[in-house]
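[job 0417] fold request received: GTPase HflX
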Amino acid sequence: MFFERPQNGGEVAVLVHIDFPEGPNREDLEEFRELVISAGADPVGLITARRDVPDARFFIGTGKVEEIGELARMHGAELVIFNHSLSPSQERNLEKVLQCRVLDRTGLILDIFAQRARTHEGKLQVELAQLEYQATRLVRGWTHLERQKGGIGLRGPGETQLETDRRLLRERVKNIHGRLEKVRAQRDQGRRARQRSAVPTLAIVGYTNAGKSTLFNALTNADVYAADQLFATLDPTLRRLLVGEIGEVVLADTVGFIRHLPHKLVEAFRATLQEAAECELLLHVVDAAAPERDHNIEQVDLVLNEIDATDVPQLRIYNKIDMLEHARPRIDRNDQGQPVAVWLSAREQSGFDLLRQAIAERLGNQVRVLDIRLSAAESRLRAILYEQGAIQTESYEDNGDICLRIRMQMADFRRALARVGIPEDRFIEPVREDWQ
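[job 0417] inference complete; emitting structure tokens
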């Protein structure tokens, strides 16, 4: 007799949390509760246990499996959620014994992402992550069709239902990859356009529910959905922000990170997270009142490393200081006097002037205003600067020389000089005092 996976899902859930020693399997219980509530489930019971290593068959001991089953029957729960990543075989074994749906931490996060995605791109990214996650779990629902049967009227069409599903899944994954490649190309084109116009890009990153979208809305007068829940923002949003002498910059709001963020999600959202990897400055928003603040910072840095964004300059923003006693807006500086952190409250919009000041100081080393003089023979450089939208004013001397005031990033200016074969010290060193 083959096990049939129950088809009726439910929101009443029993939670399971195993307290492992410090290591890769360790998870936070309070964060788990927030994830479950964010997904819309109604937790009616919690089973906890201590183990040194997971059980190969059920992840937990058989005694705890019986305890979970009794608690689920008592409350009429149709869903059991584990605060850990389970193997497909462990999920199948648990579902067979408990006779209800079993969901692990990865599946829970994927479900939240599926609920929150609003744009076409976001939905494609979530669907891709879900399909790749389900690829090894298809057997659960089709165990009765694993074997073809012989006899008149019972011969199969040449492949089992499971094989058909896997083939369709591969085709769908290939199709989504192709569509996301187009999205990635469009984003790359947008970034190149901003680079040509010398408009710096800033990306807001941080642990989920650190207040990134609240800060983004307050700074740019945007209407991005912001709520006191995990993963309130999935779809990236870009807005322009005026920052003192720097002028306009582009500010990008990105998806929140979380410990043990499923690798499939990082891969699926790579097109979105590329905004963070290729920006001029990362604004790392930190919940200053969170008990595990330092650990959350480490988890964000791990994801930044996974998307190759560790070399991007970073300005840390300690948000929610209104929830701390005696905390006031301030700028923290390193030994060289460079701003490295800003303490503020996005909800009360206090400390924003200090944030703009810190951004201007950090970008001031990259975006400069320079007065240069070109001879008629160097007019090719003028054409390149016009192409990049860097020229602010232009005038001509009686001898035919061209006087330009340009505003652009130093790296772009050096590349432009290299293209026309003009040495850097022709402009940069002699007029360093003219940089504004």
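[job 0417] notes: The first strand starts at residue 12 and ends at 19. The mean pLDDT is 77.
[job 0417] exit 0
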